[in-house]
Amino acid sequence: MRILVIEDDKELCSILEYQLKKSGMEADFCHDGEEALLYGTKQTYDVIMLDRMLPRMEGITVLEKLRKKKVATPVIMVTAMDQLKNRIEGLDSGADDYLTKPFEIGELLARIRALARRPARIESIDELYFSDFYLDLGKMKLLRGEEICSLSKREGDLLAFFIKNKGQILTRELILTRVWGADSFVTDGNLDNFIYFLRKRLKSIHSHATIRTIRSVGYKLEE
Predict the structure, then answer these.
(1) What three-state secondary structure class fits 212?
(2) Which of 53, 81, 97, 138 has a 20 to 30 A CA-CA distance from 157?
(3) Total number of domains constituting the chain
(4) Residues 68 and 161 in one domain
(5) H helix or E strand, kind and range, residue 219
(6) pTM score of the predicted model
(7) What residues make up the domain containing 7?
(8) CATH number for the domain including 15?
(9) CB atoms within 10 A of CB 180
């Protein structure tokens, strides 16, 4: 599991780095809002831990910008601001959970695991574009010019996840967790089958895009 920690308290970051690694999680750290926006939009994470009070760009602003850029990664907002109106503002801005400082490391880890188990959210936007095709999520259709192909709901969700993370190498574990959910009983073989079917769908509309296998790691959508 890969976590992005956005926190300007470097002493706390040192503690979190040790605890996350001890729990088998990988983590990237950044300490201001502008850096956070860059990390959050260029890399793929299972969960983002976001401090509200940050230099250069406030946490709420970072969160709103991430959501506008269609980054659907679950976000835990962490802050010392514990009034109800602050929690409501954070959740209304796109946070999935809210944790006030000081907090117990065990509770934070439990919340991270709970959020990571959720399947990826499919945004309300109906059409997603990549290369020479677009995906109509409302009708579950794959289109290129006059050519059209129908997709199953799962195929559509899987392709949408690839498009939203276009150009990035997605591990098998991340795909299974974010598309099916960590509690599902989907095997690597099932994933391979869905990748095979998506490749056939792309070929059927003569798209130049492909899903490339990254040996021993996962897959990548590319032109």
Answers:
(1) strand
(2) 97
(3) 2
(4) no
(5) strand 218-222
(6) 0.61
(7) 2-116
(8) 3.40.50.2300
(9) 19
pLDDT per residue rounded down to tens, the chain (223 residues): 889 999 999 999 999 999 999 999 999 999 999 999 999 988 888 899 999 999 999 999 999 999 888 788 899 999 887 777 777 887 888 888 989 888 999 999 999 988 887 766 545 457 888 999 999 988 899 999 999 999 998 899 999 999 988 888 898 888 888 888 766 777 778 899 999 999 999 999 999 999 999 988 899 999 8
Q: What CA–CA distance (Å, rounded) separates 126 from 114?
A: 28
Look up residue 133 and give its amino acid: F
Lookup: tokens for 139: 């009708």
Query: What is the DSSP code (8-state) at residue 78?
Result: E
| Residue 19 identity | Q
Residues 166 and 147 in one domain: yes
Cis peptide before 119 (omega within 30 of 0): no
HSE-CB at 39 with a 13 A cutoff on CA atoms is: 24
Q: Are residues 101 and 138 in the same domain?
A: no
Residues 110 and 6 in one domain: yes
Structure tokens at 128: 């997603």
